[in-house]
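Re: the pair you flagged

First of the two:
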Amino acid sequence: MPKLIVTNGDGAVDRMRAAQISGHLLPWQDMLHDGPVPAGDLLDDVSDARASFLSQALGLPLDAVRADFAHRDAQLDVHSAYGEVELWFEHDLYDQLQLIQLLHYFSHEPERMGLHLVQCDHYIGVMGPDEVRAQERHRAPVSSAQLETALEAWAAFTAPTPTALAAFVSTRQPALPYLVPALRRLLSELPAPHSGLSLTEQRILEQLQDGPRKVAQVFAAVHSMDEAQFLADLPFFLRLDGLAFAHEPLIAGLPFRTEDCAGLAFAPGDDSAAEHSYRAYAAAEIYLTRAGEAALRQQFDHACENTIERAIGGFQVRPGAMWRYDRNRHQLMAPN
């Protein structure tokens, strides 16, 4: 019987095809680390929330995004027609959130015979054919311990406050060894005390301390700082937007918002305009403002002064619910 293989995105699918990995390849493709992710057992509810967020954040047509999610989910819903299902996922935050979403889904399925997991400690999208084929040697049946760990992690991730998530990352989870480091990295995207900056925002500003730099250069530098790199270009650009278009901007020099170039990718016959806009954004020179310099000195609270609002999983960071994370102490700080 044929096999269904679910992995993180088109890049991984292309590499697996080049390696002649047999099976129907399904790219999952959702940056779950950004935006709301509701609790509940229905995949449709999550997909609806994700489509709405991605449409708004990236300036994409809602119907097109919904259709992409519906097409993706329909392929998963017929998993029982396959002899086996394999989940191929990497060690970084982007993949680990997708993995626990899928394990949560399968834990509620009456039939999940032949469910296997391939956990990779490297990026499938850059592997050569031999390296991809070598990953199959790590293929193992999904265990009850892995399902239980994923259920606990998904419940913590989609909870209305980050307290359960902070408790989860304080424990060892040997069944899914990459999950705790990934979720700890997610907590680092909460505002820090004093500066109100997430870890990514802090790193962006630090890259500009010596003068203006192009967006593409800043992205490459910040991206490389994560041991398990998870942040793609568009979600990185959204973080730049948040710094540049705040009430008190921390950086300057962006020509327009991310949605103004991302949305063009869905415009019929407008490929050249989309590429031109993307290149213009990536080539823009950005620099620190006085507020950005003050934030680096912990003399300006970006989260407070700019009244940031940000959804992470099931909870909101906003005025009145300004959860923070002390990265030095690995400590969650409740709103005052």
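Second of the two:
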Amino acid sequence: MAPRSQHRAARKRRTALVVVSVAALALVVSAVVALAVAVRPDRKAADERPAPAPVAGAQVTRAPATEPEPTPSSAPPSRKAAAIAPSAPETPAAKRPAATKTPRPSSGPASLAGRIRPAVTYSGVATFYDAGNGDGACLFGPTDDVMTAAMNTTDYETSKACGAHVLVRTASGASVTVRITNECPGDCAPGQLDLSAEAFARLADPTAGRIPITWTLLSPDRADTLSVRYKTGSSRYWCAVQVLGHRNPVARLEVNSGGSWVALPRTEYNYFLSEKGTGCGGEIRVTDIYGEQLTVDGIALQPDVVQPTRVQFAAH
């Protein structure tokens, strides 16, 4: 039988061996855990990776919390605006100021005037002719007002001078106001007026035959209103419209067609022509050379009937 001291020594060796084994096992477990941590994907790093680029046709939705608020300068245009917005730079015409109805200063012409302009003095000569019943190329019809004149072809300007009131003066100080009702073709030069015999007699002895004059456009005071007349033969398939009794020269006549205003061309005989019947019998809008617009409704489509209105252009 071994001595008791030998048993104690053997027990101590076994205890030491167990302690060493446990320590070794702990080291192995720690190594395994470290290895597992090393090879596991980092969730936070994966979350911070950039999202893949969108594919054509795919819908990309971003979280509102991460998307910055657009500013007026960086906000994308709406789909509608992008569809109609031109890609070319804005043209200078788009930047021009809007037109107004206010006449230009006396140093310049009104924007809608033709050759005969407000506040401009014209020079020429005056002759005279027998005006008869006062009717002429403007087709206003007979009149009792014998203070009329025929405008030279150049200044007549395809009947744009029709109905204009002009003040005629001579170097001696004589003057007369006449209304343009006719055209003076042939030998009449620019600036020349062929007056009625009665109007010429207000300026000089008819035996003079031909005298130097100056003349200017007027916007006279008058109490009556303008009238509208459809030409003979007018119908809803073809019509010609005329304005009579206007204070200022007429620059444009438009008819309402489907809610839009359509400008009619002017003829040499002082009617505005609708060859295809556009707007015939409907609402009419008349514009003078100062830009004032008068809208007239309720004019019946009755050929060769003078129909008065309740409107008149303002005096200037």
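Residues 4-39 form the longest helix (36 residues).

-B.
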